[in-house]
């Protein structure tokens, strides 16, 4: 009876009550009490005028049951960020839509998935409905630690009517940038950076033959103190990935830069299941300012270690959309994909959350019951269009307790596909994207027990007692890409090895020079042989150094040990010494006759 009851309950309007406007009002009340009626000192659009800043970013998944509770906890510390506080809240204000581009070889997808040095992601983004005429062209560039540079996200605005001509190379941004100069709102250096960005993006679009492949849609609730960028939290709900390609002979976007048969009408019920992946969880993103080395607030630390969230290192909407909707065209899959059907809900282990006050006290923080029901729809908060600068420097968070998610599809998300439970198996009634990707087995869909701990992609385990993750058999030819961080010390170790070989070859060369200048005929013969060995060692060490460095950058599994080099070196040295002994013993008195 329970599965049928849950299906009927999810269909009732009262079960899908939208608390967005209420959350915005509650946030405003908390903010007034926090400031004691005073006005904010910073920019109301939140974020100030920074042109570049450094942040640590971590991502978490939030079950639908915990969304509203999580919002209420956050707004007690940070107000909901509203771009235009003078405008009445509209549901479409929080909608964000992005069109991601790639080519037929999915070079951008593979680069972002493997975290290659210089890997790019290019997208076109707009805020609100389809009538918005301002489109942002954005490029994310990944930088490895060994380069000494930081990952950068940069963007520039473009009018919708110029998007197609810009992508075809028929329109340049000179007129728009000239207007920026005349307006005087940006410095000459900033405008030059935007000009370079526009030229590089347009060049990549044309030379790489990039086309729209995936659209991401979600409603974002942003939390931030106006003018204070130390802590910024965003919660993306109703996340959906939609196909934009024309690969299977069906025109979706056609020659346009986006498809026009859909808007922001979630859950996009007019689309077939093969065209859409409705993500079952909300995505929480925590950005902490690291420019001045501040410690994160205690409440943020408690939040990210609570039962309400599940850490998802390196999660990407673009990667997830391609790997689920276009799985037949890619061979490499993200590490979280095989774990999609494992329940992420956890029982509360600490007194963190919302609950009724204790008897005789005025405390409003208590442990929330496991599986408590909350609203799953979120459209509150202003768009973040005004809070993001044109160029951002991003530092990836790599804390020791960062864990990979054990993910599951166990709840309902707005008006999306319904999930029911059958004998411990979480089954999606309206599957999309993943239905043909994995051969599902009953053991792979069991709920996670109370003492189940997350397991990291590298095999490490988090707090608590860890149990093995059920294996999902992958389709033939598919591989899982695990996030691997290449430490700078790995490159330094390679350099030290090269210098050790070089030091040895220099010693041999010095010995050869001494024999050549101060020895007899036998000494000169030995000098020639030692010189040959020394030069060979130098050349081999240089080749091995570059070979290892190239494989380290590509994160190859190895092996990196060298069996040939030391063996050959020892062999040559033994031969040279034996030849020297032979010549010296065979001609002890007259070496000039050799």
Automatic annotation (TrEMBL):
<feature type="domain" description="DUF202">
    <location>
        <begin position="489"/>
        <end position="549"/>
    </location>
</feature>
<keyword id="KW-1133">Transmembrane helix</keyword>
<feature type="transmembrane region" description="Helical">
    <location>
        <begin position="525"/>
        <end position="543"/>
    </location>
</feature>
<keyword id="KW-0812">Transmembrane</keyword>
<feature type="domain" description="VTC">
    <location>
        <begin position="55"/>
        <end position="325"/>
    </location>
</feature>
<feature type="region of interest" description="Disordered">
    <location>
        <begin position="348"/>
        <end position="417"/>
    </location>
</feature>
<dbReference type="GO" id="GO:0000329">
    <property type="term" value="C:fungal-type vacuole membrane"/>
</dbReference>
<comment type="similarity">
    <text>Belongs to the VTC4 family.</text>
</comment>
<feature type="transmembrane region" description="Helical">
    <location>
        <begin position="564"/>
        <end position="583"/>
    </location>
</feature>
<feature type="transmembrane region" description="Helical">
    <location>
        <begin position="498"/>
        <end position="519"/>
    </location>
</feature>
<feature type="region of interest" description="Disordered">
    <location>
        <begin position="449"/>
        <end position="474"/>
    </location>
</feature>
<keyword id="KW-0926">Vacuole</keyword>
<dbReference type="InterPro" id="IPR051572">
    <property type="entry name" value="VTC_Complex_Subunit"/>
</dbReference>
<dbReference type="GO" id="GO:0006799">
    <property type="term" value="P:polyphosphate biosynthetic process"/>
</dbReference>
<dbReference type="InterPro" id="IPR018966">
    <property type="entry name" value="VTC_domain"/>
</dbReference>
<dbReference type="Pfam" id="PF02656">
    <property type="entry name" value="DUF202"/>
</dbReference>
<dbReference type="InterPro" id="IPR042267">
    <property type="entry name" value="VTC_sf"/>
</dbReference>
<dbReference type="GO" id="GO:0008976">
    <property type="term" value="F:polyphosphate kinase activity"/>
</dbReference>
<protein>
    <recommendedName>
        <fullName>Vacuolar transporter chaperone complex subunit 4</fullName>
        <ecNumber>2.7.4.1</ecNumber>
    </recommendedName>
</protein>
<dbReference type="GO" id="GO:0033254">
    <property type="term" value="C:vacuolar transporter chaperone complex"/>
</dbReference>
<dbReference type="Pfam" id="PF09359">
    <property type="entry name" value="VTC"/>
</dbReference>
<keyword id="KW-0472">Membrane</keyword>
<dbReference type="InterPro" id="IPR003807">
    <property type="entry name" value="DUF202"/>
</dbReference>
<keyword id="KW-0808">Transferase</keyword>
<feature type="compositionally biased region" description="Low complexity">
    <location>
        <begin position="371"/>
        <end position="386"/>
    </location>
</feature>
């Amino acid at each position: 009876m329970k599965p049928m009851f849950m299906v009927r309950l999810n269909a009732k309007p009262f079960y899908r009550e939208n608390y967005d406007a209420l959350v915005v009002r509650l946030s405003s009340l908390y903010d007034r009490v926090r400031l004691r009626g005073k006005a904010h000192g910073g920019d109301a659009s939140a974020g100030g005028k920074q042109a570049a800043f450094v942040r640590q970013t971590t991502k978490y998944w939030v079950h639908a049951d915990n969304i509203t509770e999580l919002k209420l906890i956050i707004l007690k510390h940070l107000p909901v960020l509203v771009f235009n506080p003078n405008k009445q809240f509209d549901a479409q204000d929080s909608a964000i839509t992005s069109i991601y581009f790639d080519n037929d070889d999915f070079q951008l997808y593979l680069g972002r998935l493997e975290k290659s040095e210089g890997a790019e992601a290019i997208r076109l983004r707009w805020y609100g409905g389809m009538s918005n005429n301002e489109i942002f062209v954005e490029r994310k560039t990944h930088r490895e630690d060994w380069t000494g540079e930081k990952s950068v996200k940069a963007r520039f605005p473009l009018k919708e009517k110029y998007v197609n001509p810009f992508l075809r190379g028929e329109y340049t941004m000179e007129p728009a940038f000239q207007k920026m100069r005349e307006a005087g709102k940006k410095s000459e250096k900033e405008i030059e950076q935007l000009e370079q960005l526009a030229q590089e993006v347009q060049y990549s679009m044309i030379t790489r033959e990039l086309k729209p492949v995936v659209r991401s849609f979600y409603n974002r609730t942003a939390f931030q103190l106006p003018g204070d960028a130390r802590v910024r939290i965003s919660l993306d709900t109703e996340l959906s990935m939609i196909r934009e390609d024309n690969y299977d002979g069906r025109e979706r976007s056609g020659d346009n830069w986006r498809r026009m048969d859909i808007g922001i009408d979630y859950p996009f019920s007019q689309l077939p299941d093969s065209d859409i992946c409705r993500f079952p969880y909300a995505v929480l993103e925590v950005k902490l300012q690291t420019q001045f080395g501040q410690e994160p607030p205690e409440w943020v630390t408690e939040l990210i270690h609570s039962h309400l969230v599940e850490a998802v290192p390196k999660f990407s909407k673009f990667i997830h959309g391609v790997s689920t909707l276009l799985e037949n065209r890619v061979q490499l899959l993200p590490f979280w994909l095989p774990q999609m059907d494992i329940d992420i809900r956890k029982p509360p282990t600490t007194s963190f959350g919302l609950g009724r006050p204790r008897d005789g006290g005025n405390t409003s923080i208590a442990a929330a019951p496991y599986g408590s029901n909350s609203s799953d729809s979120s459209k509150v908060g202003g768009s973040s269009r005004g809070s993001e600068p044109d160029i951002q420097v991003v530092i990836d968070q790599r804390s020791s307790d960062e864990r990979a998610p054990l993910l599951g599809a166990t709840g309902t998300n707005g008006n999306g596909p319904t999930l029911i439970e059958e004998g411990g198996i979480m089954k999606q009634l309206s599957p999309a994207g993943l239905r043909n990707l994995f051969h599902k087995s009953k053991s792979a869909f069991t709920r996670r027990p109370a003492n189940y701990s997350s397991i990291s992609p590298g095999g490490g385990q988090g707090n608590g007692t860890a149990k093995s993750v059920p294996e999902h058999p992958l389709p033939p030819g598919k591989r899982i890409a695990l996030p691997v961080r290449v430490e700078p010390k790995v490159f330094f170790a390679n350099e030290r090895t090269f210098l050790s070989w070089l030091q040895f070859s220099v010693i041999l060369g010095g010995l050869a020079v001494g024999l050549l200048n101060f020895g007899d005929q036998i000494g000169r013969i030995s000098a020639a042989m030692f010189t040959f060995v020394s030069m060979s060692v130098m050349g081999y060490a240089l080749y091995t150094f570059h070979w290892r460095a190239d494989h380290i950058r590509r994160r190859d599994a190895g092996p990196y040990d060298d069996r040939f080099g030391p063996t050959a070196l020892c062999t040559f040295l033994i031969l040279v010494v034996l030849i020297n002994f032979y010549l010296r013993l065979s001609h002890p008195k007259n070496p000039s006759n050799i």
